[in-house]
Queue: 3 jobs
Job 1
Amino acid sequence: MSKKIFSGVQPTGNLHLGNYLGAIKNFVELNDNNENECIFCVVDLHAITVKQNPRELKDNIRETVATFIASGIDPKKSIIFNQSKVKAHSEAAWILSCTARTGWLNRMTQFKEKAGKDKEKASVGLYSYPVLMAADILLYDSTHVPVGDDQKQHLELCRDIAQKFNNDFNVDNFFIVPEPLIQKEFSRIMSLKDGTKKMSKSELSDLSRINLTDDADLIINKIKKAKTDPLPMPSNLEELEKRPEAKNLIGIHSSLTGINLEKLINEFSGKNFSDFKENLSQVLVDKILPISKEIKKLLNDKTFLDKILTDGYEKADKAASKKIKKIHEIVGF
Ligand code: AMP
Ligand code: TRP
């Protein structure tokens, strides 16, 4: 059966290895399958839920497009566009915010993490962010949504919103209830400085992540400095489970090379971390450096990147306008 794929990435700079392994690598595989229809959205409306510098935001939108393409997404096969251009997203988000219940939103853990201690000062947008995400997905009758593990709860909310809207208005299957596509293993890549915290754009130390624009020296240095425990490399899976930093580094290797965990553990069992780190650095450089070089090359051609967004906009807007028109009829506007 052909799948309608939709996913979004925020243009907030510093796309990193977690974004790549948790989401973008999967986007590329889905894009390569000719049976799928794929839409990849640069979610700039989501980005402004926290303060952004307007000039940097513009650059980051282009950099996100460049990263998609440098990673292997073919803009001739997949639609790439930015969310703010297609007006139906904001409109559908409002309508769906009248379907979503505050009790549902109150349970969202990402809001609690991002808002921190002073929730009163968080923007209303940050709170209602998952409703906009539901609008993104539902406007295109998406059947499958590839995301990292941190978005699982938001997708469940999206499914609840779709079902409640269909029930409330008695329109069976009007909104397709989408399936999440989350990697089975290592769907959450952790910080290089703390194996219990997710790798993130907003972490202060750049040493905590491998950015997709890092050069070879930076990658090697970051892996060299990555936190490990004082023991030698683990010798079985049970031991690995108890050692978050080792688990993360071996997991990164396994996700990039496709070599299974047992095999990696056997190969490096009892050795010093430095041997493994040398090997991992090489794997990372081989994978990330070509992407990093291509991003830098693409960023010199703003006209090309902008053209991808305008072409994508035209296709996305056509589909979204049709759906929002039907939504208007259903709610009685
Ligand atoms: P964001 O940068 O927050 O827009 O995230 C873009 C995509 O990358 C989403 O599908 C996230 O789930 C995924 N992602 C972000 N950080 C990580 C991480 N540390 N590990 C795995 N996936 C991630
Ligand atoms: N909330 C997602 C994130 O922070 C980004 C996103 C916005 C998204 N809209 C989406 C992901 C729709 C999948 C589908 O990573």
Job 2
Amino acid sequence: MRHIVISILFLSVFSVCIFSQNKEIIEVRTNDLTMIFSALKNEKVSFQYWGDKINDTSAFLKKRFKRQPDSNQDTDPQLFPAYGGRYYLNPALRLTHSDGVLTTELVFAGTEKKVMDENRIETIIHLKDLFYPVLVDVRFVAYQKENIICQSVVVTNAGKKNFSVENVASTYIPLHAQSYYLTHFHGTWAAEMQMKEEKLTPGVKVIESKKEVRATQSESPSFLLSLNGPAQENSGEIYAGSLAWSGNFALSFEFDESGLLNILGGINPFASTYHLQPNQKLETPEMVLTYSSKGKGQITRNYHDWSRKYALAHGAKIRPIILNSWEGAYFNFDEKTLTDMMDNAAKFGIEMFVLDDGWFGNNYPRNGDNAGLGDWQVNLKKLPHGIGYLADHAVAKGLKFGIWIEPEMVNPESDLAKKHPEWVVKSGKRDILPMRNQWLLDLSNPKVQDFVFNTFDQVVSMSPNISYIKWDANRHVDNVGSDYLSKENQTHFWYDYVKGLYSVYERIRAKYPDIEIQLCSSGGGRLDFGALKYHDEFWASDNTNPLNRLFIQYGSNTFFPAIATAAHVSTSPNHQTGQMLPLKFRFDVAMTGRLGMELQPKDIVGEDYEFAKNAIIDYKMIRPIVQFGDLYRLISPYDENGWSSLMYVSKDKKQAAFFAFSLKYHDRTTFFENKLNGLDPGKNYKITELNIKSGQRTFNGTEKTYTGDYLMKVGIGLNLGNPFESTVLLVKED
Ligand code: DGJ
């Protein structure tokens, strides 16, 4: 069977290059999408089409896309426009050649296709400069089933002298429509991934980060671009991209005089000139692209399917329910505090205990955020029996054990800072500016890479019962500079830091393929597919207020799947908010992701205790649907009416988990009705309400049977009206 599939793929690969009078049509295809380029040897490669599948591509041999305004020639947009010739928009590539020449013109030099496996086809389009020894490979990996195309670029110095890469994007996409609506994600600490949508007007809109570390706390390298109207959930043409890169990035949307929208995405070129020596290559990160003519719901499902398979560690494995010590204990604990927490967690049916910050440092004990970072030895005053004792206790209680590290950082008050001042990121003689009382280690330096790897290695080696690491990073880069890089290459810092980080991740994954790792950076400060592929999950935000979380998770889950979304129930009010929110609402929101708790479990008593215990049982029942199912957003929390609802549907459409939330006061005469989505119209479904608190049901059709057709066309009614009332339903084939 495998052979047959591969031979069919080979046939389709050979059929994707159509030749006519030396002109080639180059196709990049997934099951439902097609990208088309046309090429003539030694001429620029034209970007012809990107959208729903097209079978007959012969017409593209004749098609013209755009007229050059100041010449009589028709000029199609290029595959990868370099700065030079008549290209006066922001270029995808800008070089300074060895003789100081500032322009580059890329022409077609051939193409290659490779069937990587049953699901992935690689296409490389080779470009070269006509006068200078510069090779540029534009690479596409097309994921057939998930309808995802990853685009990246390699620039090679094929000459004998150095040249400088001033900027190189991962992707260039030209679009032509009546209007363009950009959705991007903006935020700050405790309010990450807030969705913004705007109509683009002539000019350039840039979304970027120059923070390098914790880059996505304020902006995200993920976007949606809707044609001819705001993005809809189930209709309309939408292009999407998400840059797999954990450092500085720039997305630019340039609306030009011909009405074309020119999208560029990649590493931020700001202060980042990269000098390439002979035979050296510079490889960009991948831009993860997809398209839907049926709205953003399908975009999300494409990303989730792809991510679970290709951009997430252990994407096919159920995630445990976690109790994290942070909000329950902060830095104030001893052994008994922690073992008590574990004992209580076990009673709730929790499956893992994670010891957060505060367990290390002896000369400079980590009793607050002002000391100890860098000194990764257990604090013997707080924990005299070591980490092994705690991990064994967890396992004896039937829990897994995890532990927190922040290995890229150092407190000035630490043994490490005194021993290795040359490892700290700094700008010559200027002050090293602390942030959260800490400095950043220079991961462009291989010795620092070794230190970070060894830290991970040593921490994990403290006990065979450590099965999870929370990797945090709580500051970004300012006053940039490296003692390791030469003075000519200081601008390499941005690229080399991320590459250094990824090489550490690679070494860790080679040695510890099974360990679970959480991606955290003051919450969602490092949320991108480049880092996520080495991790099992991400901490979406330090804000566990469920009302705020509905928005943060809405943004995060537009691209990143629920299975990876750590969502914890905390006390209310807690450190982020004075607002008191019901326990049921807190659980119901957290259950839309990877459920966990972040509080003192002994504080949940009486009726709340019974509720929480049962909610965990209910979550275990719907967990495979939430973690592996298809997400259908029904009502956005951004809608003015003050409701929010969503559902996950199992791939075989036999089960679904439905969630609805009331976000404001609704008059009791307002009846909440909601049409479901994603079900099989021909199946019968029984609906059961879960997470019922104090016997108060919100759905009076519980245990009744409905057809999928009815549920999707007529919907269900719920008694939700007051702020922070919520519903969870199990919808199961009868
Ligand atoms: C920031 C993280 O986001 C929190 O969850 C917690 O781990 C603290 N750091 C600990 O310092």
Job 3
Amino acid sequence: MAHSSVAAWAPDSWTSKTIRQQPTYPNPAALDDVVDHLTTLPPLVTSWEVDALREELAAAARGERFLLQGGECAESFQDCTADIITSRLKILLQMSLVLTYGLNTKVVRVGRFAGQYAKPRSSPTETRDGITLPSYRGDIINSPAFTEEARTPDPQRLKRAYTKSGLTLNLVRALSEGGFADLRHPEYWNVDFMQHSPLADEYHALVQAIEDSLRFMDVVADGTPGSLDRVQFYTSHEALLLPYETAFTRHVPHQNGVYNLGTHLPWIGKRTNHLDGAHVEYMRGLRNPIGLKVGPSMTRTKLLDLIEVLDPDDTPGRLTLITRFGADAVGTKLPPLLKAVQATGRTVLWCCDPMHGNTERTEGGLKTRRFSNISAELEQTFDIHAAEGSHLGGVHFELTGEDVTECIGGARGLTEHDLERAYHSRVDPRLNYEQALEMAFSVVRKYRQLHQ
Ligand code: PEP
Ligand code: CO
């Protein structure tokens, strides 16, 4: 195959390729100055953490771990607060305990946080009342208010994104070292909201069993730090704004290769996965494990070419394919791609993102997703892997620990009319705390059906 992998790679070799989904800065020299400055600052993560995650993802690809990736669609600077970071971490931890217990396997926790600030958009501009301005592309680029000042891309925002990522990660790391004591308290596992679900009894029994295990672990540990006192969270974000990513792309002493030390797991979004494009060029040279979103327009040939370029040596844990087709399309789109990858004899980690193929708009114009469509795509994805002799090794959600009303459905039966009450997302609708926990229960339920 004649493709770019034969050419030499460098942290900036992407600059000779076509780049998509980038803002137009009024003063490009100011962007260069900011990137030069960021290059001198300490990284956010270390190469050994990145290597450890790659090993864990390799184990997940072998079926010995399960990946839970979740968090914001788009982080915002103003939501970099103790409450929001803590509650997001708690729901992720709680979901991971449900999965650990229910799937009887270790869970790899990866947040969509500490750097998820850049968004691809379907249109570069937005028009309201005859006025056209650049689209909001995430807090690292501009601001959502519909004014010329807010929407003009500002390179200084890269520095704020770095600072906010560091502040977020600092709290995540501190909480990971013992901040979860209240998870052992029964009131933390109050799942009264489930009472209206036909599955309430089943889920209550699961929660009871988890509580018993947590108590049992406490008794066994006898006051010495137990395993819950230190839990690992890794970070991930879409590697979209390449000047920012390049600033954290570093050689590490005594290590081979080049790492992105701005996050553990960067991923390529659906809109920037062109074989000859800048994003694929940038990602192919990193040592990090990487994610690749796979949507309905992906062909077999393109997917195999991407795998060849991004993971030429079939490195265990290197590539996570994050599928996002939508509940309607997954049944026809996933099987041929799955078979094509299987026929190569390669091992990749398959992860299901049941959010991005199931976005719709209400009559009132709000973006939403139905809990029922999200779980339907997940369940079908589990079934398709099982039918093909493959296995689904992970799940990917957009969620928050807050009580928002952005997705429809779930045990509490949120309707379209509820959405206005607490719709805070600036981009995609997220599962709220209860919906996210219920989703973890439903993953367990499906998994157990397949494995009993
Ligand atoms: C996202 O994960 O927020 C996203 C934009 O996904 P995709 O690239 O799959 O559309
Ligand atoms: Co999104």
